[in-house]
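Model: Ready when you are.
Researcher: Fold this.
Model:
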Amino acid sequence: MKTYFRNNGLSICFLILFGGTLIGQILFGFEEHNKELISEGGKIISLSSYLLSGHFIESTFENWESEFLQMGLFVVLTIFLKQKGSSESKKINQKEEVDREPDPNRKNAPWPVKKGGFILTLYKHSLSVSLLLLFLISLILHFYGSLKDENEKLLLEGKQLETISSFIKNSRFWFESFQNWQSEFLSVFAIVILSIYLRQIGSSQSKPVDAPNMETGV
């Protein structure tokens, strides 16, 4: 067990952080949503009902959407684009290990590498495809949650409900998306640039403390 935690500590830590913060979001979001319902003349809902509400679905997936977009684009763009001096970039004028073609004879090579053909082609791009697919799923669920939340509010006000075709042109959905996207792009920009000049000893995301500023990669 000790070895398992040592080998998987990073993923376990972030899974625990994810679970804890998701619970916090649910509890405080549930309380906040009921406050809104009361102020708008509605009735308090149960926690189980809240988990199916547009308020929860929208607030959850608009964040997931931006995270997967950020990671997916970062994976794809770092194939072609480089940043001199950044620990987040490949080296400027040389090929790296990640650029070479896979060797099916390599010891413990994953089975798609040994299989070859279409399976290997798909596997070679599986990380970016998975992240962008998760982005697309999250985007759709964000849209669904946002539309549902909007219609729940309109229903309380006795107004005409939004349709899919009308809501996709609604500024609310796009505002929710762009406000999250811009923050994700800013955070990537920050780590790319700051890692040129700043260090964190012991971190895989930093260059060695004594590395020259213009040395690219870790």
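Researcher: Now this one.
Model:
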Amino acid sequence: MGSCGNMSNPTTKTEQKKINHLQRVSFSKPPFTIGDIKKVIPPHYFQRSLIRSFSYLVQDLILVTLFYYIATTYLCFLPYPYYYLAWPIYWIIQGCVFTGIWMIGHECGHHAFSDYQLVNDVIGFIFHSVLLTPYFSWKYSHRRHHSNTSSIEHDEVYVPRLKSKLRWFSNYLNNPLGRVLALSCTLTLGWPLYLVFNASGKSYCRYASHYDPHGPIFNDRERLQIYISNVGVIASAYVLYRIVFAQGLAWFGSSTYGRQRLWCLNKVFHNITDTHVLHHLFSTIPHYHAMEATKAIKPLLGEYYQFDGTPIYEAIWRDSKECIYVEKDEGSTGKGIFWYKNKL
């Protein structure tokens, strides 16, 4: 059983023109295979360079150091109230750069950083731990997400709810104020809630957490590495605590604020956003080849490649309003095809 967007079909030509980007995508069997797609991508785009991958990591670390130096050296000289305005701006900028580092760790988990699995895991473990992400835990659940994307039963995250399984408070949140509250919670607490409580994740018969080595998310071969992930996060949290105790909360804000809250240029995030279709097809292609590889597959994919240029803040609000649950159309002949709807 699968799940896929979008909202109900528009009924008039005016509506069709107005929300053309919300037209339902084709769900018929495509006239090409994964092998066909791979053939149109030049082979060298699949090649990973250890030196080049490290260069992007070093670049991000230099930016983090530079912004930290500027903030801690010069912001203290700003007069009131500019001092209090400058720090949040710095947190935003620094948070975006740290997101880029997090994306490199994500690439390590996909074996896209280098040809050497040990190097990938060491680099990914270090930098994900520093950013309080359990590297191996998320690596394994994320791998299953890639294997089961948009499956209601088997996907590990972003699992939509059936109308029959909506929670009792859904009606109370189906209004502008409720959407603001829900979005605020998602954009601030969504990531830690997912890691700790598997919020928005696959439904298991018992408690599931990325920090539980014996939980249902992981198999016996993975459990030792889940312990290692936990040790990495705990050690990083302790180091952060000691630094905050010595430096103050402003330093902590400079190091952690904004990874989930803000969006910046695609380049800062190493193009994980605008090449995500390719990423789900061939996740071992490194980010520095992803744009060219995406251009190579677009002509073959045709209508199966969808792009929505709606500004992010508009798209988030639209989705919170239109994509409340999924269900089959009445009389639908599409086996296992569910569509997002919003009529409660």
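Researcher: Key takeaway?
Model: Residues 29 and 304 are 10 Å apart (CA to CA).
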